[in-house]
Amino acid sequence: MVLPAALRERVAAVHGGAGLSERLRLYDGWAACYEQDVAALEYRAPHLAAASLAFAFPAPPAEARLLDVACGTGLVARELHRRGFRCLHGVDGSAGMLERARSTGLYQELWQCILGREPLPAPAEHYDAVTVVGALGEGQVPTAAVPELLRVTKPGGFLCLTTRSNPSNLRYKVELEAVLEELERQGAWQKVLAQEVERWEKATSDEESTQATGYISGVVYVYWKCPVPPLEEG
Question: How much is the pTM?
Answer without folding.
Answer: 0.94
